[in-house]
Amino acid sequence: MNTIESSGHNIYFDTKLAPLAEIIEKGTYSNIFVFADRNTAEACLPVFREMLDDFSGFDLIETDPGEENKNIDFCIGIWKTLLDFEADRKCLMINLGGGVITDMGGFVASTYKRGIDFINIPTTLLSQVDASVGGKTGIDIDNVKNMVGTFTLPQAVFIEAEFLKTVPKREMLSGFAEMIKHGLIADEKYYQELKAANYQNITTAAIHRSVEIKNEVVTEDPLEKGKRKILNFGHTIGHAVESYSLSKDKKPLTHGEAIAIGMICEAWLSHKNSTLSAEELAEIRAYISSVYPAYKIKEKSFDKLSALMQSDKKNEHGNILFSLLESIGKCTWNCRVAESDIRESMEYYNLTYVK
Ligand SMILES: NC(=O)c1ccc[n+]([C@@H]2O[C@H](COP(=O)([O-])OP(=O)(O)OC[C@H]3O[C@@H](n4cnc5c(N)ncnc54)[C@H](O)[C@@H]3O)[C@@H](O)[C@H]2O)c1
Ligand SMILES: [Zn+2]
């Protein structure tokens, strides 16, 4: 699969980390750190080492898995660990894990001693098609998603299908939601292909197409002044539902499950406030609900969800702004919608699974 060039760095596909071996062999880095969580240290580190001929010239920084740990306390721990290892500005951090690891590892690297190099090796579908591409790093504050972060690009990204073999089905589905989103916002043919293949048959070619779509958008608008906002389709309501679920539910939604809910709501908003046809709205709702489990957005949570949406980073001058579909494959951004419509879209979602 072709390497994708992205603003000064490469995104490699199924190279068995050969270009990384070359980088390491050059010996220009003073220290190499591998940042992983407990699960990826167990499932992915052996694969990583094997691909690099039993490479052991690194120090492992391991953290607890899960979104609830993508916070400043863990960052402080990692910064201190780097200091304990006397890491200087010439060291390299390799983020080996899902989006939590690439987001938090990227954030730690971009701020430690005002910035050290990092490389992303995304190991979940979600991080391969989305989180590790585009230069956003970040952490949550009080369960509110990605409130602190930087735009910093990695030195390289390595996407290896091999790592997906151990990813649980629920996590595969989480990443699949972002792929559906890429089709909905930018490429109707790709959306239809994904539908035909479904999540059980995800190919490197499909992952490559998702990365290509994301990369085209972020290259055009790296700092999210305009077009990049289309990548947030489903995320205004989705992020609010995800944050709420993280703070309230015993078994919180995954990012992709929350975005699937958000996409149904925001497809409704797209029909009401943009040009998405009733047929396409019905199509999107039927397909997404055939893949993702039912969830109830509790009516008593609507006020809290509105408050969460108010703190969304896409907002300007206090207005909640949405990215809405004009049709399947075409998305617009900076759309203002009435608060009553937001509520109605969530009521529409709640009726999705009612027979
Ligand atoms: N920076 C961006 O542009 C961007 C874009 C989308 C999402 N994100 C962020 O990404 C995060 C979600 O990413 P995620 O879903 O990858 O979460 P994650 O990193 O929490 O991974 C999900 C789970 O899978 C485990 N895991 C990872 N790789 C595995 C493997 N190969 N085998 C077995 N288990 C494995 C992890 O330990 C974790 O328990 C969110 O924090 C979201 O905000 C960032
Ligand atoms: Zn997302």
TrEMBL record:
Kind of enzyme, top EC level? lyase
Q: Domain named 3-dehydroquinate synthase C-terminal: which ranges?
A: 175-315
Q: Which UniProt keywords apply?
A: Cobalt, Lyase, Metal-binding, NAD, Nucleotide-binding, Zinc
Species this chain originates from = Pedobacter westerhofensis
Record carries keyword Electron transport: no
Record-given protein name: 3-dehydroquinate synthase
What cofactor(s) does the depicted protein rely on? Zn(2+); Co(2+); NAD(+)
One annotated GO molecular function: 3-dehydroquinate synthase activity
Question: Which InterPro entries does the record cross-reference, listed alphabetically?
Answer: Dehydroquinate_synthase, DHQ_synth_AroB, DHQ_synth_fam, DHQS/DOIS_N, DHQS_C
Question: Gene3D superfamilies, alphabetically?
Answer: 3.40.50.1970, Dehydroquinate synthase-like - alpha domain (1.20.1090.10)
State the function annotated in the UniProt record. Catalyzes the conversion of 3-deoxy-D-arabino-heptulosonate 7-phosphate (DAHP) to dehydroquinate (DHQ).
CC annotations in GO: cytoplasm
Q: Which GO terms describe its biological process?
A: aromatic amino acid family biosynthetic process; chorismate biosynthetic process
The 3-dehydroquinate synthase N-terminal domain is annotated at 63-172
